[in-house]
Specification:
- The protein has about 260 residues and is mainly β.
- It has one domain: Porin (Beta Barrel), CATH 2.40.160.40.
- Helices cover about 10% and strands about 60% of the residues.
- It is built from 1 helix and 15 strands; from the N terminus they run αβββββββββββββββ.
- A hairpin with a 7-residue loop joins strand 14 and strand 15.
Length: about 260
C-alpha cells in the first residue's frame, strides 16, 4: 500500500509540474500576462545600407506586473537595445558604432479578468543612446494598446503604439511613427511554442514602411528550479526603406520568475 501511495504521489507531482509548465507557456504567449519575465532578445539584420552591412541589436526587455487594485494590473514593458552596426557605408566606417540605443517604456492598464484580454496605456521614448548614430536624440510619447485571445493551445492578437516627439535636438528628424504587431502562436504538448508575427513600423515623416515578418520557435525548460525559455527564428522583410535590411535572424533567452 505504501508503494502504491508513493507511486500515486509521484504521478500527482508530475501532473502538477506539467500543468504549471503549460500555464507558464501560455502566459509567455501573452505580452501582458501577470508574470515577471526578462527576455534577452538578439536580432541580426543583414544586407543593410549601400555597404551591405550588418546590425546586431540585443534587446533587454523586462516585463513586470504590478497589482494596483482588486480588478486591475499595471504591466511595465521596457525595451533597452544594445546595438553594434558595421559596414553600413560603402566606403569607410563612418556609420560603424556600438553602444546603447533609445529606451522604449510602455505601461498597460489591464483588467485581471477579461475576454478578450486587453490593456491600454502610454508609451515613452527616452533618448538613452550612447551615440547620435544609434538613437533619435528625441523625447517622445504616445498611446499603446494590446488585445488578444487565448483559446486552448492558440494565442492570437495584436499590439500597437504611436510615438510623437515633444522635445530634443531640433536638428534631428522628428519622430512620428506607428508600430503594429499582429501575432499568432501555437503551443505543442512538449511546451514548444511556434509563433509568427510582424513588427511593422510606418514612419509618417519619411512616408516609409518597414515590415519584418518573424517566424520563431521557443522551448520552455528548467535548470534546477529556474524556468526559462529559449527561442530562435528567422525574419524576412516584406517591405523596407531603400537601404533597409534584406533578412535577419533572432535568438535569445527568457528568464521567468513566476509567483
Amino acid at each position: 500500500m505504501k508503494t502504491k501511495t508513493t507511486i500515486l504521489a509521484l504521478f500527482g507531482s508530475a501532473a502538477l509540474l506539467h500543468a504549471n509548465d503549460a500555464d507558464l507557456a501560455q502566459k509567455l504567449a501573452n505580452p501582458i500576462a501577470s508574470l515577471i519575465s526578462v527576455p534577452i532578445q538578439s536580432n541580426l539584420d543583414l544586407g543593410v545600407g549601400p555597404g551591405d552591412g550588418t546590425i546586431w541589436k540585443t534587446n533587454i526587455q523586462p516585463v513586470i506586473p504590478f497589482d494596483i487594485t482588486e480588478h486591475w494590473n499595471l504591466i511595465s514593458r521596457t525595451i533597452l537595445p544594445v546595438i553594434d552596426q558595421e559596414g553600413l557605408a560603402p566606403a569607410g566606417d563612418t556609420l560603424d558604432e556600438s553602444g546603447l540605443g533609445d529606451l522604449t517604456q510602455s505601461f498597460f492598464f489591464s483588467p485581471k479578468e477579461s475576454t478578450p484580454i486587453w490593456g491600454v496605456g502610454p508609451v515613452l521614448l527616452i533618448p538613452t543612446a550612447s551615440d547620435s548614430l544609434l538613437g533619435t536624440e528625441k523625447w517622445g510619447m504616445g498611446p499603446t494598446a494590446v488585445v488578444l485571445k487565448q483559446e486552448g493551445l492558440w494565442t492570437y492578437g495584436a499590439l500597437a503604439n504611436h510615438l510623437w516627439d515633444f522635445s530634443g535636438d531640433d536638428s534631428r528628424n522628428s519622430v512620428n511613427a506607428t508600430f503594429l504587431q499582429p501575432f499568432v502562436s501555437y503551443i505543442t504538448p512538449t511546451k514548444t511554442t511556434i509563433s509568427i508575427n510582424t513588427e511593422t513600423t510606418y514612419d509618417w515623416q519619411a512616408d516609409e514602411w518597414t515590415v519584418p515578418i518573424n517566424f520563431v520557435v521557443s522551448q520552455l525548460f528548467k535548470i534546477g528550479e529556474q524556468p526559462m525559455q529559449a527561442f530562435v527564428g528567422a525574419r524576412y522583410y516584406a517591405d523596407k526603406p531603400a537601404n533597409g535590411p534584406e533578412w535577419g535572424l533572432r535568438l535569445g533567452l527568457t528568464f521567468l520568475f513566476p509567483n
